[in-house]
UniProtKB/TrEMBL annotation:
The keyword Ubl conjugation does not apply. Transmembrane segments: none annotated. It comes from the Bacteria. Keywords: 2Fe-2S, Iron, Iron-sulfur, Metal-binding. Pfam families: Fer4_19 (PF06902), zf-CDGSH (PF09360). GO terms for molecular function: 2 iron, 2 sulfur cluster binding; metal ion binding. Residues 39-76, 188-225 form the Iron-binding zinc finger CDGSH type domain. GO terms for cellular component: cytoplasm. This is CDGSH iron-sulfur domain-containing protein. PANTHER family: CDGSH IRON SULFUR DOMAIN PROTEIN HOMOLOG (PTHR46491), CDGSH IRON-SULFUR DOMAIN-CONTAINING PROTEIN 3, MITOCHONDRIAL (PTHR46491:SF3).
Length: 239
């Protein structure tokens, strides 16, 4: 872990927010369909600071930041996710050109869908055309870290990320999505124990995940819209 990563931390508060420290840059990113797949587009600017508290209960009127509403809503936010390591939890799917690890933690970001198929289909046919490269892209772009493409020699593919946090909006589904945590930021449980440090994970911010603190796509089922969207609508910068 680099010195920069070592200073970055997310601490889960029991019944409350995620406390982020270490000057972690934060931005809003919007999921946009593009050419049979998806891409992120920059959303509105968010204030930057050395430390901040992100809402975990889904009730803040100042989303994505905590405004204390968790008290009024008696939010419990009990963590239920396994702390076993990814490689212990993930199943391996073998393909002719590349393999795929899959731990089943879906945040419904849909980046595993590419023009010629989803990550599993592309792995299954990874000896044809550019399917191998597409399968690697589909796995690497999965914000939840559910999917990892693995070469025959054991090489695992990852995008390079600096430690950073993305607040996700998903206008195609008319919902606000989770928190994309990138670049090996330590996440510490409310009981003080750490989760496995990973390059990509998606945290729940609607308060409804059954796999807290991680996103399990519950925001789609409950049609979660954060207060910023309900006040202003998702903003997308013109390119
Ligand atoms: S966690 Fe504090 S307002 Fe949601």
């Amino acid at each position: 872990m680099s010195d920069i990563n070592a200073k970055c931390k997310i601490r889960i508060i029991e019944g409350g927010p995620y406390l982020v420290s270490g000057n972690v840059p934060i931005s809003e990113q919007i999921i946009i369909p593009k050419a049979g797949g998806y891409e992120f587009q920059e959303g509105r600017e968010l204030p930057q600071s050395e430390a901040y508290a992100l809402c975990r209960c889904g009730k803040s009127t100042n989303a994505p930041f905590c405004d204390g509403s968790h008290y009024n809503h008696n939010f419990r936010g009990k963590e239920t996710a396994s702390k076993n390591r990814y490689h212990e939890r993930a199943e391996r799917m073998e393909g002719p050109g590349v393999d795929l690890l899959d731990d089943g933690r879906c945040a419904f970001a849909r980046f595993c869908h590419r023009r010629n198929g989803d990550a599993w289909e592309l792995v299954e046919h990874s000896d044809a055309g550019n399917n191998r490269e597409e399968a690697i892209r589909a796995a690497c772009d999965c914000p939840s870290g559910r999917l990892t493409a693995v070469d025959m020699d054991g090489t695992e593919y990852e995008n390079e990320y600096i430690p950073s946090i993305d607040i996700i909006q998903d206008p195609e589904r008319r919902v606000s999505a989770g928190i994309f945590v990138k670049g090996h930021i330590l996440i510490e449980s409310a009981d003080g124990t750490p989760y496995e440090v990973r390059n990509r994970v998606a945290l729940c911010r609607c308060g409804e995940s059954r796999n807290k603190p991680f996103c399990d796509a519950a925001h789609v089922a409950v049609q979660y819209l954060d207060s910023a969207v309900t006040k202003r609508g998702p903003s997308v910068k013109k390119k």
